[in-house]
Every structure is written in structure tokens, then in C-alpha cells.
Write a structure and sequence with these properties.
It contains 13 helices and no strands. The protein is about 80% helix and about 0% strand. It is globular and about 90 Å long.
Length: about 325
């Protein structure tokens, strides 16, 4: 399917996502939407509106039909993510075994930074395949998204610490952790998670539109996210349920290794028993974590496609709403 306007724009070709059922690739639809100033009505019609079920179904359709190309264009980034997180896991394990050595704590910072960098590269690579934007641009934007996410998480952590201080001042001194305090923590976590749902739209909009700045679109996009809060909640909940079974199946080796490590630690620390684990058990743990997170990267890819479809549907709904309001205002002026 060839569109003359796309040829005139010299739009970059799609790296991964191909035509599905005769539709334009996601990257071409987005570039055409962002850069072409011709035939606006036709452009709006190109972006198909989905319900929350349609977003997940379309994502599965795209992911399954392009799995081979997705794998060959993402495996190196997924492997880097798996290796860095496995290295971080290994350093944390050594840190626990050596009773909190400060030197090991400093060594943990290196794999931590590598993990953050590999996450940025993986997220940028995914959006390069979805939008056709250069990897340098998507990685730069991905870095800002990751930094903003970390800052937001730290802010929520500070709020939870504040809640903890308040509950500690109210509880009796003889009770370590009353049930009502746990209930308050649980309620706060649920409320914070629900209030964070608009960020799915904010970050996707920033990654998908090359001419936007995060601090410029933040408050307006957050307001749009709250306006479509029910749609975001339904889409992300259904996506989570769909990937839950796959994630559990992928994590079985990791859970087995973790249970063995935990039981060995309980035996050696509480009962004084010798460890029954082989000397190369840490190597097994390392490769298990690497394999688990390598596969988790492709599950994350699917969830990003779901969120991208959700973003497209929200954009189309808002454009239709604005067009309807403009038509009504024009009719009111004529009357």
C-alpha cells in the first residue's frame, strides 16, 4: 500500500512492524499523521479506534504476525537488559552473603547503572520499531521517560514514608505493626497506583510524537489521561491478565532457583546446617535471571504495543470530540 505523501516526505521505513491485514504499518501511520499537512480528514480516518478489548486483540495480531522480525530486531537489546539485571542480581546476592560490605555496595552501582541504561535502550528500540524514528531520538526520549518515572517513584516513596511516620506516631508503643496500619499502607498503594494510570498515556504520547516536549505536554496530557481514566484502567487490566499466565510460565525456573536458595539460607542461618547447594549454584542463578528477563523483554514489547493502540484510540476520540464541538459552535453561530 503506497501513499504519495509518504514518498514525498521521505519517511523512514518500518524496521519491524509490517502491514497487517492491508493496513499501514504503525510507523507509517504515525509519521503520516505527524508530518503531513494534506488531507486532514483522511488522516484521522486512518487511525482506527479500538475499545479496550480491541487494543489488546490488535496488539496480539501485530505481535504474533511479526514475531520473527520483532525477535531479530530486539534480541540484542533484550540480551543486554537480561545480562545487566542478572549482573545486578549477582552483586546484590554477594552483598547479602558478605554482611553488607560497603565495597560491594559500591560495586552494585555499576550493574545498577547498566540496568538503567539497558532499559532505556530497550524502550527506545521498541519505539523505533513502532514509529520508524531514529534510535538516537527514541533513546534520548526514553531516557527522559525513565528519569521521570524514577523521580515519580521516589516521590511516591517519600509520601509512603510520610504515611509510615504518621501511623507510627498513632500506634501503641507495645505493638510493632497493627493491622489497621497495614490496611492504610495497602489503601495508599492502591490509590497511588490508580492515580498513576494517566502516565501510560503521557509517556506514550511523548515517545510517539517527535515534535513534543515532556514538560510542555505534561499537565494537559495528565488531564486527558484522567478524562479517559476508565479506558486506560480497562485496557491495562486486560493486558495484565493476558500476560500474567505467560509471565508465570516464563518465571518458573527463576522461582524454583529462588525457592532453593531461600530454603538453603534458612537452613544455614537458623539451624546451622551446611548448605546443600552446589558451588556453581550462583552461576545457575545468574543464567536463570538472564534467561527470565530476556523473555520478559518481549512480554514488555507486547504491552507497549497495547499501550500504543490505546494512545491512538484516545487521540482519535479527542479529535472527533473537538470536531463535533467545532461543528456545533459553527451551527450555533449560523443560527
Amino acid at each position: 500500500m503506497v501513499i504519495p505523501h509518504l514518498q514525498q516526505m521521505n519517511a523512514p521505513s518500518c524496521i519491524c512492524i509490517k502491514n497487517v491485514d492491508g493496513k499501514l504499518p504503525l510507523c507509517c501511520r504515525l509519521i503520516y499523521l505527524n508530518k503531513s499537512k494534506m488531507n486532514t480528514n483522511k488522516l484521522i480516518g486512518m487511525v482506527k479506534e479500538h475499545g479496550y478489548k480491541g487494543c489488546v486483540a490488535e496488539a496480539f495480531n501485530i505481535f504474533s504476525k511479526n514475531l520473527k522480525s520483532i525477535f531479530f530486531n530486539t534480541w540484542a537489546f533484550a540480551l543486554a537488559y537480561g545480562f545487566s539485571t542478572a549482573l545486578l542480581f549477582l552483586c546484590v546476592t554477594f552483598f547479602k552473603l558478605h554482611s553488607g560490605s560497603r565495597a560491594l555496595l559500591l560495586c552494585c552501582l555499576i550493574p545498577l547503572l547498566l540496568s538503567v541504561g539497558s532499559t532505556i535502550a530497550l524502550y527506545g528500540r521498541i519505539f523505533t520499531q513502532l514509529t520508524g524514528f531514529p534510535l538516537k531520538l527514541t533513546c534520548k526520549r526514553s531516557a527522559k521517560v525513565v528519569v521521570a518515572s524514577i523521580a515519580y517513584t521516589v516521590l511516591l516513596g517519600c509520601l509512603l514514608m510520610l504515611v509510615s511516620l504518621v501511623t507510627d506516631s498513632l500506634k501503641p508503643a507495645s505493638v510493632s505493626m497493627p493491622v489497621w496500619a497495614l490496611g492504610i499502607y495497602a489503601c495508599c498503594l492502591i490509590v497511588f497506583a490508580l492515580l498513576s494510570l494517566p502516565l501510560f498515556y503521557v509517556f506514550t504520547k511523548y515517545m510517539a510524537e517527535a515534535d513534543t516536549r515532556l514538560h510542555h505536554i505534561w499537565w494537559k496530557s495528565v488531564a486527558t489521561g484522567f478524562r479517559h481514566w476508565g479506558f486506560i484502567f480497562s485496557t491495562q487490566l486486560l493486558s495484565f491478565i493476558c500476560v500474567l499466565a505467560v509471565s508465570l510460565a516464563v518465571s518458573v525456573p527463576y522461582m524454583i532457583v529462588n525457592i532453593a536458595s531461600f530454603l538453603s539460607m534458612m537452613g544455614t542461618e537458623t539451624m546451622g546446617d551446611p548448605s546443600g547447594l552446589p558451588s556453581y549454584f550462583l552461576v545457575i542463578e545468574f543464567f536463570t535471571v538472564l534467561f527470565n528477563n530476556f523473555l520478559a523483554s518481549f512480554i514488555f514489547f507486547f504491552q507497549v504495543i497495547v499501550t500504543y493502540n490505546m494512545y491512538e484510540s484516545m487521540e482519535k476520540r479527542d479529535k472527533e470530540r473537538k470536531a463535533f464541538q467545532q461543528d456545533n459552535s459553527l451551527e450555533a453561530k449560523k443560527d
